[in-house]
Each structure stands twice: as structure tokens, then as C-alpha cells.
Amino acid sequence: MTFKNILFISYVYTHLHFYCFLLHLKPPPTKMVGTHLSIFKPNLSRPPTTPTPSHRSTIISAVHVAQNLSYFDTIHSDIDSHLKNSITIRQPTAVFEPMHHFTFSAPKTAAAALCVAACELVGGSRQDAIVAASAIHLVHAAAYTHDHLRLTHRVWSEPGPEIPHRYGSNVELLIGDGIMPFGFELLARSMDPAGENSGKLLRVIVEITRAVGAEGMVAGQGYENGQPARRLHGCGAACGAILGGGNEEEIGRLKRYGVYVGKIQGLLSQLGESGGDKLQLLEKWRGLALKELECFESRQIERISTIVGV
Amino acid sequence: MTFKNILFISYVYTHLHFYCFLLHLKPPPTKMVGTHLSIFKPNLSRPPTTPTPSHRSTIISAVHVAQNLSYFDTIHSDIDSHLKNSITIRQPTAVFEPMHHFTFSAPKTAAAALCVAACELVGGSRQDAIVAASAIHLVHAAAYTHDHLRLTHRVWSEPGPEIPHRYGSNVELLIGDGIMPFGFELLARSMDPAGENSGKLLRVIVEITRAVGAEGMVAGQGYENGQPARRLHGCGAACGAILGGGNEEEIGRLKRYGVYVGKIQGLLSQLGESGGDKLQLLEKWRGLALKELECFESRQIERISTIVGV
Fold first, then answer.
1. A153 phi and psi, to 5 degrees?
2. B184 in contact with A at a CB cutoff of 8 Å?
3. Which of A150, A170, A213 has the CB atom closest to B182's CB atom?
């Protein structure tokens, strides 16, 4: 472990303890670090500036060495592997290098991880949901890239916080435009030879397009801060439940569970801005989220519910 | 017919005769106007500035009065109707009004019309292909909107020719981002209740995502002028052949036919820039395009081949 990694882990821990203090909770034991990274602060597991791929893989290796990956860490790791196999840097590199960069420099989203967790909760396998989870990360990465685009005329919204720009705006625009349909391509291509999963795949495509299309992300970005995240989290959980063979009640409940997770994560990301009322709201949403899981057996809900801090 | 319409039709005819002269062809008779508008000059049927919806509907009405719609005009008219039913201006109007505007102010693309024509050629009905054709228009409209976005840093490409901007850049960005997935949503939602067309729909989604995704439109925009148009035209024809129940040879031949149509239309749009060599190339591509249709019965190919000026 290099000095740089030690510094980074110290950074994560300092912040983690700070948020635990805010929430009047005990700091998590070492073996839970991955889980709580997801719970308490979205993207806290990433350094403040966009890490290079080699930096990120060093971090992942360091966690692997500890042999104590949390449930959601293992999911993120599997999604990452699937995406790395799907998006290789090849000719023309002027297209695939930035595509690779934007895909992996976008912060990880719990929406993608929820897709796998929901699938496993209803009895499906990780493999059933990994493509959809990757597609959800891709549409999220495309939106993240466009959210930081430098435009000459902004009317509705302020640009996102400044991030380092490795490429020109038109590369960000075009590659973002290419990443989104690539997500749908991955999904559509994952039809099994007999076409038995084709109905489920089309339903998943409808879920994702609604979450990121005009009625979802656009309306959200135009109107209410945090709305897109909530839609994508609900969508992720619903897609997983569909692919895992859940019944309509299970799909509906997991979708609502995902919406609460998105709300909670959105609120946690703003916790520094003000105080008390938000913690009450957080507890209320956490309770409502867990209520949606009651129809599942208690043994099964343990893993998926770690994301709301239980 | 208003004075404005008479002026517009005079404008179209002046240009039409000019292109006929260039191609050493007789000017078309009045009743063929619609067909030849499609053949000789992409988007010639549109005034130089973006028409308002009411202006466009006046034009359509004027053509309807003549009761002499060409084959491709009837297809464009049906796609337009389907899109108008799918995209209504509703709440929140700040989202759906610009979505409506960008969808209908983008120039019509022969790629969408080829989808219907190819479907009918292989024995399918217009209804089988109208949703896919609408989806192709939507991804084209999203790309057209983003192609004219005002960015602060351009590296790869020059912006498209200046067009009137009714909205701020971030509205163009976000609504463009919303229009593209809406195309896939329309397609995925068109699964029949028994799911019998689901395999075809997923294959069509793969065709479209490849044409507009990283390997298609992005690579094209980055590297070679005209490439995206060719990919989308080939994709349109292939999608129609798939949905109409064509066999693999028919799908392959119609895809290549569409690619040639895209190349021909790309070349025609640049005809004013220089002279002779391009006309030879045009004749060559036209011959190769028609060769792809030889496996179909001669009676059936008459309608689809009007688009390459036969």
C-alpha cells in the first residue's frame, strides 16, 4: 500500500466519522467500510477530483486485499468488470478513449447497484441483472457528462460543479450522445438465443427510457433538484425485480424502495447545507423505505437494506 | 393559397429546375412534385429557415389539396401523424413545448421513410414499421438539435450552419437528451400483447443504437462528413425489412440500398460546391443501389426506387 493510498483512506475515514457524528451513529467497524461509504455519502469513496483509471484500479485492489468487500461493493465491482469488458479502448481511439474516460470517471450510482440487489432479492442471479445495471450506469454517465458541459446560453439550470475537462465540449456532447444508446444496445443484444427474456428486456428498456427521457431526467433537471436521481434509483430497483422474475407487487415495492434510496442519498449529499429538519426527514424516508421491504422474508432483506443504513 | 405559399412554391420550383438541369433530366411534371422533392435535394421541401408548426401544416395542407402525394410523401405524412399523436404539448409545457418544437423543426429524413418503404417491399404493412420510422426520426431530431448547440469549446468539428434558436443551449441539450430515449421507449412499448414481435423489436433497437451510438454517429461526426446520414439511412431500410418479415438476404440488400440512398442524398446536398466528378459518382451509386433491389420483383421495386430518381 502506497503512501498515496494511505492518505486517501485517511481522507475517507475522516469524512466517514464526521457523517457518523452528524447522524448520531457509531462509526462503522472496519469490515463495513464499503457498505457505509455507500450509505452515508454518495461518491465519498472517490477522491475530490476525477481519478485516473490507474488510480481507481489501485483503490479497488487495496479494497480487494482486505478481503472484506461489502455486498454493494461486490456489485459495483462486478458492474465495473462488465463495463470494462464491454468498452475497450480500440480504434478509433479518438472515440473510444473519451468514451472509456466518461464511462469510468462518472461517479458510481447506487441506481445501478440496486438493479442487481433487487434482482437477487426476488430470486434472480447476478448475471440476470448485470447488463441492465451496466446500461443504467451508462445512461447515468452520459447525463453526468452532459451536466458538466460548458454551454454559451443557460436558461433553466446552473451548470454542475466545475470538474476537470480533458476534452473539448463537442467531444463531451458527442460522446455523451453515443454512450446513452450504447447502454440500450447492450441491453437489446443480451436477448438469449431462444428470445425467452425478450419481453423482460423490452420492459426494462421502457423503465430506463422513462427515467432518463423527457418525462424523467429532463423534467427533473428542469424543475426540481434531485428528481433525476430519485427516478433512476427507482428505475434501477424495478429493472432488477423485473429481470429476477419478481411479481408485480414485488416490482412495485422495490421501485418505491429505490425511490426512497435516491431521496435519502440526495438528502445526504446536501446535509452540510443545513441541519435538523433534514435528519428527521431522513429517518422518515428510511422508515418508509424499509416498510416496502416487509413483504420479503427478513433474512433476504438484510443485504439490500444496508444501503439505507440498517 | 396565400401569397406566402405561392412564393414558397416558386422557390421550390426554381431550385428543382436548377437541379434537374444539373442532372440533365427533364423537370418533373406537376403531379410528381412530391417525389422529386425527395429525390433531388434533401430538405428542399422546407423553406431555408425553420418553419413554425402552423407554417408546415399549411404546406402539408396545400399538398393534400392537390391530391397527388407521392409514395414517399404519404410515408412522411403518416410518420408525422404518428409523432403528433405521440408527442402532445402538455404539462409541463416547459418540457413538452420544446420537445414538440425540436421534433418537428428538424428536417425530415429519408432514413425514416425508407424504414416504411422497405417494410412494405418485403410484404409487411405500413403499421408494422411506423413506430420504428418515428423512432428513427426522433433520434435524427435529437442529433440535429445537438448538432446546432452553441458550445464554448469545439475541437473536432465545426458547428452546423446557424439556425434560429428559440431556446437556451441547456434546453436544447436536455431536450435533445430526452428525445433520443423517447424514440426507444416508443419502440419498446410497441410490443404486441403476446410478445410475438419482441425479438424483432430488440433487433431493431440494436440497429438504431449502432447507427446513432459510439460506433455510428459519433465516429462519423468525428471523422468523415456525411457518414452519420449514410448509417442512419442503411439502418432505416434494415429496420423496415426486419419488421416486415424479410429474410436475411433481403435485410442485407435493403440495408445496402439504404446506405447508397444516404450517400446519394449526401452528395446531392453538396452538388453546388463543385462539378463533374460528383455526377459520375452519383450515377455509379445509383446503379449500385438499384442492383441491390434486383432480387425483388420488378413491379414491387418501383415505389422504393423513386428515391434514387428512377
1. -130, 110
2. yes
3. A213
Q: What is the mean pLDDT of residues B245-267?
A: 95
Helix ranges (H only) for B148-218 are 169-189, 198-212
In tens, the pLDDT along B222-255 reads 434 445 556 899 999 999 999 999 999 999 999 9
ipTM of the complex: 0.75
Contact B181 A209 (CB under 8 A): yes
pLDDT tens across B89-144, in order? 988 888 899 999 999 999 999 999 999 999 999 999 999 999 999 999 999 999 99
Residues of B whose CB is below 8 A from A93: none
User: Which B positions 142-161 lie with beta carbon below 8 A of chain A?
Assistant: 142-143, 146, 149-157
- Best of B91, B131, B174, B203 to disrupt the A interface (most A CBs within 10 Å) is B174
Nine cell digits for residue A211 = 427515467
- What's the confidence (pLDDT) of residue A228? 52
Interface of B with A in 226-285 (CB under 8 A): none
CA atoms of B22 and B40, how far apart (whole Å): 10
B206/A222 touch (CB, cutoff 8 Å), yes or no: no
Interchain pair B181, A139: CB under 8 A: yes
CATH fold of B70-308 reads Farnesyl Diphosphate Synthase (1.10.600)
Q: Give chain B's largest Cα–Cα span.
A: 55
Percent of chain A with pLDDT over 70: 67
| Rounded percentage of chain B residues whose pLDDT exceeds 90 | 49
pLDDT tens digits for A6-55? 434 434 333 433 333 333 333 333 333 333 323 323 332 333 333 344 44
Contacts of B294 (CB under 8 A, 6+ apart): none
Q: How far apart are CA A127 and CA A109, in angstroms?
A: 19
Interface test with A, best of B96, B100, B131, B151 (most A CBs within 10 A): B151
Q: CATH topology for A71-308? A: Farnesyl Diphosphate Synthase (1.10.600)
Residue where the block lists cell 469490515 = A31
Cα separation of A47 and B64, whole Å? Answer: 62
Identify the DSSP state of B162: P
Chain B interface, mutation test: which of A101, A158, A163, A173, most B Cβ atoms within 10 Å? A173
The answer to whether the CB atoms of B150 and A151 lie below 8 A apart is yes
Statement: residue A162 has pLDDT above 70: yes
Query: Is the Cβ pair A205, B198 closer than 8 Å?
Result: no
